[in-house]
Amino acid sequence: MDSNKLQKQYNAAIFDMDGTILDTLEDLKDALNHSLTEFGFRGEFTADETRPFFGSGAWTAVERALTAAGGAPEETVEEVLAFYKPWYASHCDIKTRPYPGVIELIRTLKDAGVKVAVVSNKPDPAVQSLCRDYFPDLFDYAVGEKEGVKRKPSPDMVRSALAELGVPAEQAVYIGDSEVDIQTAQNAGLDCICVDWGFRTKKDLVRSGAKTIVSTCDEILSKLSLL
Questions:
Q1: Is 23 a known active-site residue?
Q2: Band of residue 77 on the pLDDT scale cut at 50, 70, 90
Q3: What is the pLDDT of residue 70?
Q4: Candidate list 2, 16, 48, 191, residue with the active-site label
Q5: The pTM is what?
Q6: Average of per-residue pLDDT across 59-79
Q7: Which of these, 49, 61, 143, 205, has the minimum number of CB atoms within 10 Å of its CB?
């Protein structure tokens, strides 16, 4: 890890949501288990078992869960997904909480003139709802998975966010917690900071090519020369 790599001023910080700014794992697990049970599959996955399912969008999470539960054809994945998405959207804020220091981090960035956004593979209705509930009026832009828009690690959503913020890629940093976020930052031409408090361990992140890994929000500010 190059601890000096990020010692520069940025004009925008783009955040992943699940595992980065919000601890959503319990609500994701409960919604997934409930959806599987509705279709007669095993619905008893633990949080640790559920953790690796997420990161690449809802479809992939359902597919991975069904595979772990014994396997199912693609049409079954679509059926379970069609139930899961609205169920999770209406039950996404029961156990979910911001990670310690995240709200203060975002406020500090804004006070320093840094624009902030969320780019997530979570379905967009849930992204918008959670931003309103936990970060009212804090983010300048937020977007989740939408039909017709390529999800991460495609750079499309990040590029859309940069266009909305009016900031070029070289002046922005991407902050996430998974291999998908590392790939997304690379594909979009952004520097990347990985947090080790989310859905992947530090060992996972190193294995995935992470160059800058932090354990606290203060470390993020330090990497951005704001502390």
A1: no
A2: very high
A3: 87
A4: 16
A5: 0.91
A6: 92
A7: 49
